[in-house]
Amino acid sequence: MSKPALSIENLDFNYRGASHRLFSDLNLLVQTGERFGLFGPNGAGKTTLMYCMTGLLSFQQGTIRLFGNEVTPHNKAGNKLFGFIPQDFSFYQELSPVENLEFFGAWSGLHRRQIKKRTSELLEVLGLSDVSHLPVQKFSSGMKRRVNLAIGVIHDPPILFLDEPTVGVDVQTRHAIVAYLKELNKKGTTLIYTSHQLNEAEGLCDKIALIDEGRIIAHDWLSNLLRDHKKQGLEELFINLTGKAYRDS
Amino acid sequence: MFKLRATILKDLRILVRDKVGLAMMFLLPIVLAIVITAIQNSTFELVNDNKVPMLMCNKDPGEAGEQLIKAIQKIGMFEIKQVGKEQTEKQITDRMHAKVALVAILIPPNFTAKLSTQAKIISGEALSRLGLPVDSVAVVSGGLDPITIYYHPVLQESFRQSIQGALRSALQLVENKLILKSIYFSLNEKEIPDTLEREIVNNQIPIREIAISRNGSRNIPNATQHNIPAWTIFAMFFVVISLASSVVREKLNGSFLRLRTLPTNFMMALFSKQLTYLCVTLVQVAIIFSIGAWLFPVIGLPKLNLPADLAGLVIVSVISGWCAVSYAICVGVFAQTQEQANGFGAVSIVLLAAIGGIMVPSFAMPGSFQAIMKLSPLHWCLEAYYGLFLEGGKLKDILMNILPLVGISLLLQGFTFYALKRKNLI
């Protein structure tokens, strides 16, 4: 049997100076090739968990593995296994898409020829070829999202972490991004996705976990969860399991 | 190597596209160096070439008043405009308010009479002490009336002092002449011959100015030699505006976060920035020094004479640049926002420049500042450059200035490393 794409065992985490643990004995398994969605209200711990999974935050106890390789903040070799698409436009707006991809490609461990090939492929697929040499700061929000995505997948990682990859874009761009992610998944990339766009998530994810106050309160195939809770859609299920009260006030 | 090359290329591209940042790093310091040198040089020329306009109101009918005017003219510092003796104080000050002159001198009506009496009294006293017969002196009632000097308020204290010094020496000359004449007349019962008078009065001991230097050069350093190194250091440290805000921008927009998820050591990002900006500081040095050496003589400013020890100059420039870059990175890592980085960066550099002796010479600072001054990296940079430029020293002569600079740089790098660790960036 192949190793799971992601396994989290007995994870304990608290922020420095915080009075209580955000995660206590948290466990999670994502199999290779899944389109996995991680959802929860604001402050539930989604982004923190994603930061732990990508080695951006060090945790107090437990283990996180990507394809069997332990994740630690300083395990740079393990970073080749995943791509990360942050919610912010985490690139250089003064540079063009080509220049950004050239730089992030080098940092992802690719050689000059590989970077050139992947850059031209990605710009073509994401519809950025015509603006490939213009500074990104002149782009619309949707185009910037596509650049953000291209940078995260330049090294063709086997697992891709996506933190709100479509926030602030129009319907066309959202459809295009979701279609591209599905295409990537078909080629074998495991997706770990988080968003507040539950309609979009419903179309993208086949398996989900709901997280609330640092605990996973539901984890199964989406179809199973909807059936078990007798709900029509993800949004209804979400409200049913997490309630209507504000969480970040 | 490919990663480092890509990172440096990225930093260079961002730098080149930041037109405002480039202007701040290159254009402003050049303008500053030219303006400050030109101002200091014109102050120097004001004394030597451009004469200070002076109104002269001589109410004295005698020869001493005329002699005083001639003596003042001889100093060569003033452009004397004589006004009629009927001019009132108000008329003189009104003309000064109209900036016709910055200084005015009023010689009182009985100047010759009283000065002659004074000279006769002094010469008589001198002769009687030697046991020689002395004629009685008809004393003019009252003491000597003062010569009044009017100053325009724009004149600075130091400049007023030098004008007063010049006038005192002119006055002294007139007084001495009169005393000499009086003694000669008492002894010989005839006037002193003009040739003898000139010989005695003009036979002053010459003053020789020598600037001490390690290489035996006797050249007096000019305004350029002082200003170009000082303002080059200021420019080097002013990269804080561009570099610190670049660090903050990358922290805030998430680029740093993304870099940490990639299979490359994050320190490479900082190393690249330091290397890129170190090159920027060296380009600044090359440009500003070249301007001093080649452009200044063309625009009528004194030429910058490069030190004999060029290897020493390069080493001092590299270490100074590295210190400036270390400071900028440290500010960038600690600052939470670009406003903080820009505000603190700019103000702190002006402060460090002020206490470091860039704006006011370190010897002119109060005693309490002498210790604080040593905390400013700009002070050590300046001392090292002055050791080469003004004292004609070699690298070994300025090692004691370079070592603290290296120490401060290492300390700043240590602070940066600590902050990055604390912020979980490395």
Describe the structure.
The complex is a heterodimer of chains A (249) and B (426). With 249 residues, chain A is an alpha/beta fold. Chain A has eight helices and ten strands. Chain A has helices spanning 46-53, 97-107, 112-125, 141-153, 171-186, 198-204, 222-228, 234-242; strands spanning 6-13, 23-30, 35-39, 61-66, 69-70, 82-85, 159-163, 190-194, 207-212, 215-221. A six-stranded mixed sheet of chain A has the order 6-7-8-3-9-10, with helices on both faces. A four-stranded antiparallel sheet of chain A has the order 2-1-4-5, with no helix packed on it. In chain A, β9 and β10 form a beta hairpin. In chain A, α2 crosses α3 (112-125). The radius of gyration of chain A is 18 Å and the shape is globular. With 426 residues, chain B is mainly alpha-helical. Chain B contains 16 helices and four strands. Chain B has helices spanning 2-17, 19-48, 63-75, 89-97, 111-129, 157-188, 194-202, 223-237, 240-252, 255-260, 267-298, 310-334, 338-356, 367-373, 377-389, 399-422, and strands at residues 52-58, 78-83, 103-107, 148-151. Chain B has a four-stranded mixed sheet, with helices on both faces. In chain B, α9 (240-252) packs parallel to α12 (310-334) and α9 (240-252) packs antiparallel against α13 (338-356). Chain B is elongated. At the A-B interface, α2 of A face α1 and α10 of B.
Short note summarizing the structure:
By secondary structure, chain A is α/β, with parallel strands linked by helices.
CATH topology of the domain at 6-89 and 157-242 in chain A: Rossmann fold
Mean pLDDT of chain A: 87
The major beta sheet of chain B can be summarized as: 4 strands, mixed
Which geometry of chain B do the CA atoms define?
A: elongated
CA(first)-CA(last) distance of chain A: 45 Å
CATH class of the domain at 6-89 and 157-242 in chain A: Alpha Beta
Question: How would you name the oligomeric state of the polypeptide chains in this document?
Answer: heterodimer
Record the strand order, biggest sheet of chain B: 2-1-3-4
**What's the pLDDT, averaged over the residues of chain B?**
84
Shape of chain A: globular
Biggest interface and which pair forms it? A-B, 36 and 24 residues
Structural class of chain A: alpha/beta
Helix share, percent of chain B: 55-70%
Question: pLDDT under 50 segments of chain A (min length 5)?
Answer: none
The overall number of domains of chain B is: 2
Radius of gyration of chain A: 18 Å
